[in-house]
Design brief:
single chain
Length: about 350
């Protein structure tokens, strides 16, 4: 994550490299990354704070676990922007450059990896929750509620933060002139597995099952009455697919460059690899600022709450339209096994019509 030299002077002499040769891996883009990350930070942090406020209101109004998972994703993105973009790319690289104690640099590196892992793995419980909601609705009604969602989020964030500790020993291979050590290889493969391969595999499997289930329902339930709730569930599914797809696309170049550097070419010997690494980092960090626009594009309730927040309007705690919208999905998810009991309960609880009321008299 951070560019600092970990090649000692004695190592330079052993390798027989001249001082001017050790500077070949300087940033090819010059000041462009500094400008880019500054703009991304100035836009991303306020946007994510606005997203967090809006999701907090939606979570308090609807009491749905979905908004708590989205809130965890937003909070993790804020941590990534502060630790990786602000501390790592801007303060350390642009301001302090190399005049920073090595212990502090390694500590910041571990914090960056921890925030990065939390930002990505907080999306996994969201994907699992949507899979259970769409593929196993009765089970979802039993196990998905705010208290359990908060516990799951706490466990995921704790494990993600703990996973950053081994990367205290992460070697800055982007400036190293020597081949990677076995420890470097282990850390690189651990990183790409945690950050990309494992979560993307989970996203691919669960999203495929969700799409397959929705297609089966559309074939089995063609009537317009049953298609109504699916449109609302479809918006949530579209949001999930957009979040996971954008992540997979933006993080793929960085994963490829890291593996390429590990086995093929070093940035110290090829400036094009360093250029590819800088560009891939810029794409990957863009993922921390795009979710707000995805939410606004897909979710009408989110846009409405954002408008209230921007205009400093509190809004009613329980909107008038919230009750019918909440009842429709619940009624749609009731199994046919209980339909007979519901009909009998409705007959017993429905008042007698005037025609039926006259018969006894």
């Amino acid at each position: 994550m951070i560019d600092w030299p970990n090649v000692t002077a004695s190592g330079h002499q052993e390798l027989g490299l001249k001082p001017e040769e050790l500077q070949r891996s300087k940033c090819v883009l010059g000041f462009i990354p500094v400008v880019y990350y500054s703009i991304l930070l100035c836009v991303g942090v306020p946007v994510n704070v606005l997203t967090a406020v809006a999701l907090s209101r939606l979570a308090s109004r609807t009491k749905k676990a979905l908004y708590y998972y989205l809130l965890a994703v937003t909070g993790s993105d804020i941590l990534s922007q502060l630790f990786i973009i602000f501390v790592g790319f801007l303060l350390e690289t642009a301001v302090f450059h190399r005049d920073v104690p090595e212990l502090l640099l390694h500590s910041v590196s571990a914090a960056e990896f921890a925030a990065n892992h939390a930002s990505i793995w907080s999306t996994v419980p969201l994907t699992v929750d949507r899979y259970v909601a769409l593929c196993h609705p009765l089970l979802h009604r039993q196990i998905s509620y705010p208290a359990r969602a908060r516990k799951i989020i706490l466990v995921v964030l704790t494990l993600s933060l703990a996973s950053g500790v081994p990367f205290f020993w992460w070697s800055d291979m982007w400036r190293n002139s020597h081949p990677p050590t076995p420890l470097d290889t282990v850390l690189v493969w651990t990183h790409v597995t945690i950050i990309y391969f494992l979560p993307c595999s989970i996203f691919l499997v669960l999203n495929s099952l969700i799409i397959h289930t929705l297609r089966l329902r559309q074939r089995q339930q063609p009537c317009q009455e049953e298609r109504g709730p699916q449109r609302r569930l479809g918006k949530t599914t579209a949001m999930l697919l957009a979040i996971t797809s954008v992540f997979s696309v933006l993080w793929a170049p960085r994963t490829v460059v890291i593996i390429y550097h590990l086995y093929v070419s070093s940035v110290h010997r090829d400036w094009r690899v360093h250029l590819a690494y800088d560009l891939s980092n810029m794409l990957a960090m863009l993922n921390t600022a795009v979710n707000f626009f995805l939410y606004c594009f897909v979710s009408k309730p989110f846009r409405s709450v954002v408008r209230d927040v921007v205009l400093l309007r509190g809004g009613p705690l329980y909107p008038r339209r919230a009750l019918p919208q909440q009842q429709a999905p619940n009624n749609a998810s009731i199994s046919s096994l209980y339909s007979g009991n519901n009909k009998r309960w409705q007959r017993d609880s429905t008042p007698l019509s005037p025609r039926r009321a006259r018969k006894p008299s």
